[in-house]
Write a structure and sequence with these properties.
This protein has one domain. It is 81% helix and 0% strand. The protein contains 3 helices and no strands.
Length: 67
């Protein structure tokens, strides 16, 4: 099982927590994804990571709201 989704979202979260711009954190997350999946075209990597981050952010907000 590939752990790239965990690595990707964790890197994004940590970079944002440290004050990095959203776009820079997103680009870093895509680079991590492409490290794990170099066979995927860049545009596909950006789309997959965007989808993951969208779902990740939604889940994070739901969790925060219920706390």
């Amino acid at each position: 099982m590939c752990l790239c989704r965990v690595a990707t979202t964790k890197a994004y979260d940590e970079l944002r927590r440290l004050g990095e711009k959203e776009g820079d954190a997103y680009d870093a997350a895509v680079r991590i994804y492409r490290h794990h999946h170099p066979e995927h075209p860049r545009i596909q990597a950006y789309q997959i990571v965007a989808d993951w981050l969208e779902h990740h952010e939604a889940a994070h907000h739901e969790q925060s709201a219920s706390a």
